[in-house]
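Let's practice the habit of predicting before peeking. Look at the sequence and jot down your guess about where helices and strands might fall. Then scroll down.
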Amino acid sequence: MEFLEYLLSRLHEELNSSDSIGTLTHQKGHQKNAEAEASSMAAWRAYTNKNNSIIVDLFHGQLGSTFTCLKCGKTSATYSSFSHLSLPLPTTKTRRPVPLLCCIEEFLQKEKLTDHWRCPICKAHKGAEKQLTIYQLPLILITQLKRLTSENGQPVRLSKKVEIPIKLDLTTYVHSPHGPTSERSQRFIYDLYAICDHQGDWRSGHYTASVRSLHRPGWNGFNDREVAPLAELETQNEILVRQIHDSCFM
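Done guessing? Here is the structure:
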């Protein structure tokens, strides 16, 4: 994933037709749904005015971070771009595979921040509640699973399998100014295009990839220098159950 991030960043820098490069950050005070929508759109326009390339058009989306002060109760928001979603693996007591949508829900869960956070409104260091919101999704969505963690001070690679759908519907996970149950004119439905598998532990291992063919039905397998057609990915009711590392949807 680090190499992919570097590659997309370098390509964007070379292809960017804007004179200046800017990061996508924007902050407002207390906001309601419609106000948050307007602020996110203003931040997105400012970002794309400074970052104009096919990389942004295809791979970049927008996240909003809402902070609710635990002292004054006021909210503030910041907005940032992303080229991939880095998703946590939910903690479960069973060995059953985790659906990818559960990883996305875990990613969007509220998080308590410590007293080091400073409220931009009341200026107090009393901590806050943070929640991420998806405002913009890219045409090509890349997801990464956070498989590295630590136990007793030692790094550990989580081996839990994840259910990856052949068709992924994220419509209900994208912010709507009229609330989560409103009718939406735009739907966000993706087809699985590629997956990256890793065999090994945190110290070493081997990566392979399976990529959907654009020129014929079926998939191609990539294993170092070897590229070979695959029959079909083994699925269960259009669900791929694998110990994947990264995935790409189009």
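How did you do? The longest helix spans residues 33-50.
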